[in-house]
Amino acid sequence: MEIETKESVLEDFEFDEPVSEEENLLPGSELATEKKTFELPEGIRLDVGVTDILGKSRSFVQGLIAQECVIVNGLVKKANYKVRQGDKIEVVFPTPRESIAEPENIPIEILYEDEDVLVVNKPQGMVVHPAPGAWTGTLVNALLYHCHNLSGINGVLRPGIVHRIDKDTSGILVVAKNDVAHQGLAAQLKAHSMERKYLALVHGVVLEPSGTVDAPIGRDPTDRKRMAVVMQHSKLAVSHYTVLERFRESTYVEVQLETGRTHQIRVHMRYIKHPVLGDLVYGPKKNQFGLQGQMLHAAHLGFEHPRSGKWMRFDAPVPSKFAVLIERLREEVS
């Protein structure tokens, strides 16, 4: 028996990989005794070289450099320092000391709630959990105000958070209210057994009625803040898309995820030359509709309830500005 929401409109949505401990340096970090010493190729930027060696994000490494945790020949250098032959690079790793997310009275749309799980429809523009640059106003802050019982598996900054969607992607998330529920949901994500479908408006006219993008995703070697289709240091990523409606210069598609990599839909649609409208990271820099964020919405989620074993299905309509844009595009071709 499926548990349905009041709304049964299929929309577009996007999920990241299961949440794990992240690389962020948090306020109040203390220096540890762990160190790493190495040399880098001559001429490479310090932050780029250290990023490659450590396998961390470039923003993480730049944070280390800013905190004077990266030393060159005993001296502090800037991130753009060009390494010279024979330079001895030493990295001192800080031990993060987590801040605590505080409850905030922020309205959230709850689609379903019981003693184990809570299903919410996240608005576009809201960050899922506190991180550098967004310590307040997140979904976690709102959840803590609404619900005092959340799983603690992912720490005090990410209570209950099993998976994420981007700040500028709207749509459905399931939250765990206890550790047993968290483990059950995380296992389904790992096994790719959750039912995850998205709706998106993309640039250009997609000619094929449907298709599959099977292309591994990893860090973009030229910009560590972005993801890209790459063959090395990447993970399997598979997306299935179906054309719902074609417009003059854009297409309305449904995308079903087989895997759930960071920015997967955005990266895969760029890879097939149809980036998501409003995505200024992976799409054109020119924003022809003045959009605030990509036209991507987590519309449908299906999963097995971690306690009862019943299959649960949730749907959420696209946000109003998404729907308005669809009508505008329809008018242009009518």
Write a structural description.
With 334 residues, this protein is of the alpha+beta class. It folds into 2 domains: 30-95, Structural Genomics Hypothetical 15.5 Kd Protein In mrcA-pckA Intergenic Region, Chain A, CATH 3.10.290.10; 109-333, Pseudouridine synthase (2-Layer Sandwich). The protein is built from 6 helices and 16 strands. The protein has helices at 46-54, 58-66, 139-146, 179-190, 264-271, 320-333; strands spanning 30-38, 70-72, 75-76, 89-95, 109-113, 117-122, 170-176, 195-203, 210-214, 217-220, 223-229, 234-235, 238-246, 250-257, 296-304, 311-315. Strands 5, 6, 7, 8, 9, 13, 14, 15 and 16 form a 9-stranded mixed β-sheet that branches. A 4-stranded antiparallel β-sheet has the order 1-4-2-3. A hairpin with a 3-residue loop joins β13 and β14 (250-257). It is globular, with a radius of gyration of 21 Å. The protein starts with 29 loop residues before the first strand and ends with a helix. 37% of the residues are buried. Residues 1-15 and 19-33 have low confidence and may be disordered.
